[in-house]
Amino acid sequence: MTALTYAFLGGGNMNGAILRGLLDAPLGEGARVHVTTRSAASAAAAESDDRVTTTALENEPRANLAAVEHADVVVLGVKPYLIGELLDEIASSLKPDAVVISVAAGVRLESLAARLPEGAQIVRSMPNTPASIGLGVTGLAANASTSEQSLAVAVALFESVGRVATVDEDRIDALAAVSGSGPAHVFLLIEQYLEATKRLGFDEDLARELVVGTFEGAVGMVVRDPDTEPAELRRRVTSPNGTTERSVAELQDGDLAGLFERAFAANQRRSAELAAENS
Fold it and tell me: Which residues belong to any copy of the Pyrroline-5-carboxylate reductase catalytic N-terminal domain (predicted)?
């Protein structure tokens, strides 16, 4: 892939994770990256790399305009409530063929397009926090103006921090419920499993070793054996009339499937509310 010029507007955690992935990936070879942050302190703490130029808005108010002027890829990493103001600021300075990628939750493509020049190529992304260790899952939805080549650029960028799924925008909220918010759901399961384990009398260190090791091992079996369904893996360790069968039955009686469905529905309702607030 031809070396590109990137503008990362916003120095938050997710933009930082994506930037690190870019710099470590082949697509980062020869790339030029301009990063803008709100404060000089954030700029000083930013990525130290010869390919990266970081500018603080408090020192240079026109930093965003300078960053996007020659950028092939513009990554919007500010909070959702700041997206409109940022787009209004940079719209006239974008290259005509630039691809604009939004990392802001709840801001729809039509809201982004309304503040950009007609025909702007826009990709809406929904990454998750494991991107910070290269194990992210990111959903991407592009508007009709985005070329296959530009979408491929966005896919490659997020593949540098994990897996990527391209979907129609009407599936983004559902994807956000599953993978965007998913790490918090998994952390909650581990948290509660850990608390229940300590109530069995294990100390903190041993309980953590038992619980984290069990989750790691079980997920590892699913990853290494993609042809076997998780339900089948569960059946293989569930002997008839055995101890595992009894504990699994208790969990199933708690309607885990229904609980997840209700959690996902609540998540999607909140996404719709955020979209309305940022339209």
Answer: 6-106
Burial of 190 per CB tally in 10 Å (0-12, 13-18, 19+): middle
Note the pTM of the prediction, 2 decimals. 0.92
258 is in an annotated binding site: no
267 annotated as a binding-site residue: no
> For every residue of 17-80, which 3-state class applies, written as one string?
HHHHHHHHCHHHCCCEEEEEECCHHHHHCCCCCCCEEEEECCCCCCHHHHHHCCCCEEEECCCH
DSSP state at residue 178 = I
Known binder of ligand: residue 19?
A: no
* 221 in a known ligand binding site: no
Average pLDDT rounded to a whole number, residues 34-60: 86
Q: How far apart are CA 73 and CA 67, in angstroms?
A: 10
Which pLDDT score is estimated for 12? 84
Given a cut of 70, whether residue 47 has pLDDT beyond it is: no
Average pLDDT, the chain: 94
Q: Is the pLDDT of residue 116 over 90?
A: yes
CB atoms within 10 A of CB 198: 15
Does residue 14 have a known ligand-binding role? Answer: yes
Q: Is 243 annotated as a binding residue?
A: no
Superfamily of domain 182-269 in the CATH hierarchy: ProC C-terminal domain-like (1.10.3730.10)
28 in a labelled binding site: no
5-172 folds as Rossmann fold (3.40.50)
157 labeled binding residue? no
